[in-house]
Every structure is written in structure tokens, then in C-alpha cells.
Amino acid sequence: EMELRNKAILQQKRRLKQATQFVHKDSADLLPLDGLTRLGTSKDLQPHSVVQRRLLEGNLNKLRGEARGQSARVQSPLAKDQDEKIEKGEDRKKETSPLLIQCQCQGQVLKATVNTGCLPNLISKRSLKQLGLEEVSAMDCGELSLSIPSAVGRVEHMELQFGQETVLCSALVVDDEMLEFCIGLQTLLSLKCCIDLEEGVLRFKALSQELPFLHASEEPGQ
């Protein structure tokens, strides 16, 4: 701010050298300044003082505008690229559901969530009923059920079809209406799965198959 004020004062002095010199500096009739009809006898209110003050304010405003313009023009390319990446990332989040694939069980399409943070496979009671699978008592769920508080049972011998290949697996039954089926880490490891987020696919190396992650517009029931 001090640097801007010094520059403004220098510009003011240069302009005053070229400005018209007033013969009667105490006359209020020389300049009709913004509707002022009477400037009085105060030195600060005389026409030449008013002109000097306005020149100084004008120079300060001009310099502030130039400083803001330069800061806006000199934007870091890295910052611009980062903004674009953030915008693209937000659009991608809106378009793609988090790690969902489509498989089949009992001849019905099943929407499966890929979850590396969950060890066993999970299936909801609603999906279990729709598929017509038999549920084993919660007492026979084993130690894996201890890590899943919502587990109410277990289903054995589920035939899941991934692409053109079919595998046999089991799953814990959970009382979760938001879930259809969850592929846990045990199954992902046994099938040597590879999550390719760049290509947007889940590769089953043990089956020589790959399935694309579902977009919001492609989800079953959408």
C-alpha cells in the first residue's frame, strides 16, 4: 500500500506541473466540482487542493486496478491444471458408482460391490430371498461373522457367473437393504483379481475375464 501511494504521489507531481495554474486559488467560481457550489475559505476545500486530492485518489485507484489485473493474469499453470483436474474428478465421481460390477446368480442379474476392506462375501436377506437360496443358521457362521455385526446367517454353494465363467463361493447374510452382494477380499484373492481404476475394469486373472465398473446410468434398476 505504501509503494502504491508513493507511485501515486510521483504521478500527481508530474501532472500538476502540466496542470493549469489558477490565478485566484480562493475563488469558488473557478471549478464546479461535482455540484459543490460553495467551497468556503478552508485551504483543504480550495479548488487546487481538491484537484490535488482527486488526482492522488485517481492514481491510487488506477495503480490498484493494474496490480489486481496483473495478479489475475499471472496465474500459475500448475494451479490452473489442478483446478481442471479437480473439476474432472468431481464429474467422474458423479458419473461412476464406487466399484460396482454386474454378475449373475441363479440366472438373475446381481449388482456386486467390490470391497477389499471386507474379508468374506456378503449378501442381503432381500437378495437371498429373490435368488431362492437356502440360509444357514447364524450359529453356524463361524469366526468370520464376529467381524460383521450385522450378519444373521450364512449361505453356502453360491454359483456366481463372472463373464463367461462360473465359480462356487459362500457368503454371510446381512440385514442391509442398501446392499445386494459384496465380493470380499477372500474371493478377490482366490480369483487373483486386479482392480484397474484407469481402465475402469475388474480383471479376474484366474478366470481370464474382466468386467467393467458400472456407471450410474448402467446400474440395474436405474
Description:
This protein is α+β, with helices and mostly antiparallel strands and 222 residues long. The chain has a domain at 100-214: Cathepsin D, subunit A, domain 1 (Beta Barrel), CATH 2.40.70. The protein contains 5 helices and 10 strands. The chain has helices at 2-18, 47-73, 77-95, 125-131, 185-190, and strands at residues 100-105, 108-114, 122-124, 136-137, 151-162, 165-174, 181-183, 193-196, 201-204, 209-212. The strands form 2 sheets. It has a 6-stranded mixed barrel. A 3-stranded antiparallel beta sheet has the order 8-9-10. β1 and β2 (108-114) form a beta hairpin. α1 crosses α2 (47-73). The radius of gyration is 38 Å and the shape is rod-shaped. The two termini are 58 Å apart.
Structural class designation: alpha+beta
- Which blocks of ≥5 consecutive residues have pLDDT under 50? 22-29, 34-39, 92-96
- Multimeric state of these chains? single chain
Taking the alpha carbons of the first and last residues, their distance comes to: 58 Å
Question: CATH-wise, what's the superfamily of the domain at 100-214?
Answer: Acid Proteases
Shape: rod-shaped
Report the helical percentage: 25-40%
Average pLDDT reading: 75
